[in-house]
Design brief:
The structure holds 2 protein chains of 2 kinds. Chain A folds into 3 domains: 2-186 and 196-204, Aldehyde oxidase/xanthine dehydrogenase, molybdopterin binding domain (Aldehyde Oxidoreductase, domain 4, 2-Layer Sandwich), CATH 3.30.365; 210-281 and 340-415, 2-Layer Sandwich (Aldehyde Oxidoreductase, domain 4), CATH 3.30.365; 298-316 and 427-705, Aldehyde oxidase/xanthine dehydrogenase, molybdopterin binding domain (Aldehyde Oxidoreductase, domain 4, 2-Layer Sandwich), CATH 3.30.365.10. Chain A has 17 helices and 29 strands. In chain A, strand 7 and strand 8 (151-154) form a beta hairpin. In chain A, helix 9 (360-371) packs across helix 10 (396-408), helix 12 (494-512) packs parallel to helix 16 and helix 15 (606-626) packs across helix 16. Residues 1-39 and 708-713 of chain A have low confidence and may be disordered. Chain B is α+β, with helices and mostly antiparallel strands. The mean pLDDT of chain B is 96. Chain B has 5 helices and 5 strands; from the N terminus they run ββαβββαααα. Helix content of chain B is 34%, strand content 15%. The chains are: A alpha+beta, B alpha+beta. At the A-B interface, helix 4, helix 6 and helix 15 of A face helix 1, helix 2, helix 3, helix 4 and helix 5 of B. Chain B: This is (2Fe-2S)-binding protein.
Chain lengths: 713, 155
């Protein structure tokens, strides 16, 4: 293959003009002699693009794929500006490479938002290189050349050449600066539907996930961890485990014991045979303890409010009516369908890491710090993930894999049992929210007090609506320290704030005789005309989705036996509004449909976006209905799907989604459709039954459901 | 430990394992077929669904010793070219998000469609509610099953 390899390499960096000062690594490789009869050669145009002499275009997908669709959507952005035929595009997942890529992150619904400008730039730069190569070859003005689906044309002379034919020359051309981006109106790929790139492999079982990783000499490992939060390991007896079939080693690290062997099941069985003694190393708390302690904490205000507009004392003093309510939020685990796992091979003073991680760069930094490996001796390859939802923003399972590989001196794949995964922490934090609002004699909302506590740093999103629309507003939060680990869970904090605040707004609307949709629109009009303090959202875009969702659901038209509930939320720079339509069918409350309007700017991949929004709504609905992890003396009470309920097909209602059409740069989408749904449902239940649900999971509110015969929502 | 001869996707495998080892782990760790997924280990999520003589079973809860001469088919063996009507319908409907549960969903649906080639919505709900999808792709799964069912009878 000497004629098909590359012998010259130099690295250039160009600024991505619209990328907020980001640099895209541009790697240049030029082949010396393209093979005349051998396999197609590949020319690397930049860190994102390789073009084969056979015309196939390889586009790199640098961001971790957790099911949010970025492995398809991000290359669509490059392909659009590069101007190629999508059918000839091959997508390759990129390993962690901080020289070439800037944000290899799956989190904060930020992949498309932050990649939009630099990825367009990368595609447009590639296209211009190919145009310049053609113009140089034909001795014509590049400006007189056009491109279409991987071909450069010079219409005046009738000349044309494919990207494949031009690739070798293009790779030797100087990097063009100030390349022109397409007018969004002329997009041919962005804004269309491209099915999930890995679809064929997924439906045929060929797709590899981290848990499928197997290497020569690799050992499977499973880990025995403290059964309760707040416990440490005293001693253990592994004599029985070591004698079991397929077990090759048992090692201890931190407060954990790893069992290694030739198969997953054998090490899982052997782990059960470990006799360990644990001791309490802190307060072992139960669910009821949190409830009591949260109440105690909220008896006082914190030293400093998170946000303070006007003066709530004055606001409440001038109230014609005061509305108060408390909302409780339970712990919930992530429950990714693929349990935590990671492959690690400590070797040659470094480590190879391979597996499902939303933050590969954080993984490398954490492992470098903790195990004292030089960063350049750590490689991280991200696999397609069987769900993330925030759990894989953590690196605990990678730290385990490295520790075990180091101790056992072998490549290992550490695989968690479902029971370990569910009881392994980093939950959505348990919290308690208290709201108090004042309205004046004209039913105008004049004061709003948010006072909350939870097992997390900040239980509020203090600059969110209705902040900006209320003259006197204060947000006070407390962090409750606990041995239970918490972390981001899809649409962190938003997922619960939206439920509690949007339900509370519904309470205000009902107690003042206002239409809930009208109340929100009035507040937004106020935030636009006369904004109070810092306002993150655009009141017009917010109002537009509210109106659209209301229109879709026929809000305001009375249909007998049908009850509507409204919820909306702004998160990750996107706007979502939803209406849940409940029907009383022979004494059973049933969700007919959920309507949703979303504004996330330009939609890159329609089918992918629709899938995200559908899934987020069903996900949000399921967790609001059924999700709760309780603890008894620090020990989770639920360990598997026999005791922890996830939504199933028969409970998933039809959904109708509308994306607002505009040419605003794209914003978040993996999360924003989740937060409003719980409020929309609880508000619909109120409309149907007059019962206000102030805690999740809803299934526990027997008083509501017992009103109906065999109620199933 | 005991030796078992298994037929998986028309190929013969010989494994020397504990008779209690669930079929799932024989398929994954010994036959090296990783398309069948581990989700819960207690037959609650359906990710591990395979066919035993054409019938969908949860491979995580069936000991290898109980297989005998029954033929095992996994997602890799559902069709020769990945063109089972359900696989094609899944592609047309663009069902998966993360994709992890989808092999189990397809295997479950394939078995059920053989008995009920033209299911009602309620029948699909009932037959598919043993398979969890944490991404919430249920509506697309249902649509894909309806699409495949329209395509004709399934043998």
């Amino acid at each position: 293959m000497s004629n098909a390899t590359m012998n010259r390499r130099n690295f250039l960096k160009i600024g991505a003009t619209a990328g907020g000062g980001l640099l895209i690594g541009m790697e240049w490789l030029a082949a010396c002699h393209p093979g005349a009869s051998g396999p197609a050669t590949m020319q690397t145009l930049n860190a994102f693009i390789r073009i084969g002499t056979d015309g196939l275009i390889t586009i790199m997908a640098p961001n971790p794929e957790i099911g949010q669709g970025v492995k398809t959507a991000l290359p669509m952005i490059v392909a659009e500006e590069l101007d190629v035929d999508w059918k000839k595009v091959i997508i390759e997942q990129a390993a962690l490479d901080t020289d070439k890529y800037t944000r290899q992150v799956a989190g904060g619904s930020g992949s498309v938002k932050s990649s939009w400008a630099p990825f367009r730039q990368a595609g447009a730069t590639g296209r211009q290189l190919l145009v310049n190569a053609a113009a140089d070859k034909w001795k014509v003005d590049p400006a007189a050349c056009t491109t279409e689906e991987g071909v450069v044309y010079h219409k005046a002379s009738g000349k044309k050449a494919t990207y494949g034919e031009l690739a070798e020359k293009a790779a030797t051309m100087p990097v063009p600066k100030d390349v022109k981006l397409k007018d969004p109106k002329s997009f041919k790929i962005v804004g269309t539907s491209k099915t999930n790139y890995d679809l064929k492999d997924i439906v045929t079982g060929k797709q590899k996930y981290g848990i499928d990783t197997k290497r020569e000499g690799m050992l499977y490992a499973t880990i025995v961890r403290p059964p309760a939060f707040g416990q440490t390991l005293v001693s253990f007896d592994d004599s029985a485990a070591r004698k079991m079939n397929g077990v090759s080693n048992v090692v201890r690290f931190d407060n954990k014991i790893a069992v290694l062997g030739r198969s997953t099941w054998e090490v899982m069985q052997a782990a059960k045979a470990i006799k360990a003694e644990w001791k309490d190393d802190g307060t072992l708390e139960s669910t009821d303890d949190y409830k009591k302690n949260f109440e105690k904490t909220l008896a006082k205000l914190p030293d400093e409010p998170k946000r303070k507009d006007g003066n709530i004392k004055k606001g409440f003093a001038g109230a014609a009516k005061i509305v108060e309510a408390a909302y409780e939020c339970p712990f919930i685990p992530h429950n990714t369908m693929e349990p935590m796992n990671f492959f690690a091979h400590v070797k040659d003073g470094g480590v190879e890491l391979h597996g499902p991680i939303q933050l590969p760069e954080k993984a490398r930094n954490t492992i470098a710090d903790k195990f004292k490996f030089p960063k350049e001796k750590i490689t991280v390859m991200t696999t397609r993930m069987g769900g993330g939802f925030g759990r894989r923003l953590m690196t605990d399972f990678i730290e385990e894999a490295v520790a075990v590989s180091q101790l056992a001196k072998a490549p290992v794949n550490v695989i968690w049992k479902r029971e370990d995964d569910m009881s392994g922490g980093f939950y959505r934090p348990m919290a308690l929210y208290k709201y108090k609002a004042a309205v004046d004699a004209n039913n105008k909302l004049i004061a709003w007090h948010h006072h909350s506590v939870g097992v997390t740093g900040n239980t509020a999103r203090e600059n969110n609506f209705p902040a900006g629309a209320v003259a006197n507003l204060q947000v006070d939060t407390h962090e409750y320290k606990s041995p239970v680990t918490t972390g981001p869970w899809r649409a962190p904090i938003h997922n619960y704030i939206a439920y509690s605040e949007e339900s509370f707004l519904d309470e205000i609307a009902h107690s003042t005789g206002k239409d809930p949709v009208q109340l929100r629109l009035e507040l937004l009009a106020q935030a636009k005309a006369n904004p109070v303090g810092k306002v993150d959202y655009d009141a017009d875009r917010y109002a537009a989705v509210i109106k659209k969702a209301a229109e879709m659901a026929g809000w305001g038209t009375n249909k007998p036996g049908v009850y509507l509930g409204f919820g909306s939320h702004f998160s990750f720079s996107s706007y979502a509004a939803q209406v849940v339509e409940l029907a009383n069918v022979n004494g059973q409350l049933k969700i007919n449909k959920i309507y949703c309007a979303i504004d996330c700017g330009i939609v890159v991949n329609k089918t992918g976006a629709m899938n995200q929004a559908e899934g987020a709504m069903i996900d949000g609905l399921g967790h609001a209905m059924y999700g709760e992890l309780t603890l008894t003396k620090g020990k989770p009470d639920q360990h598997n799907y026999d005791t922890y309920r996830l939504i199933r097909m028969r409970e998933a209602p039809p959904v109708e989604i509308h994306f607002m059409e505009n040419t605003i740069d794209p914003t978040g989408l993996g999360e924003p459709a989740l937060p409003p749904v719980a409020a929309a449902l609880s508000n619909a239940i109120f409309a149907a039954t007059g019962q206000r649900l102030r805690s999740q999971p809803f299934i526990k509110h027997e008083e509501v459901f017992s009103m109906q015969k065999k109620t199933e929502v | 430990m005991a030796v078992f001869n298994l037929t998986i996707n028309k190929e013969d495998y010989k494994v020397d394992v504990d008779p209690q080892m669930p079929l799932l782990w024989v398929i994954r760790d010994f036959a090296g077929l990783t398309g069948t997924k581990y989700g819960c280990g207690i037959a609650q999520c359906g990710a591990c669904t395979v066919h035993l003589d054409g019938t969908a079973v949860r491979s995580c809860s069936i000991p290898v010793s109980s297989i005998g001469t029954q033929k095992v088919v996994t997602i890799e063996g559902l069709s020769e070219k990945g063109d089972h009507p359900l696989q094609l319908a899944w592609e047309e409907t663009d069902v998966p998000q993360c994709g992890y549960c989808q092999a189990g969903q397809i295997m479950n649906a394939a078995s059920f469609l053989k008995d009920k080639p033209h299911p009602t919505d309620a029948e699909i709900d009932n037959m598919m509610s043993g398979n969890i999808c944490r991404c919430g792709t249920y509506n697309r799964i249902k649509k894909a099953i309806q699409l495949a069912a329209k395509g004709g009878d399934h043998e």
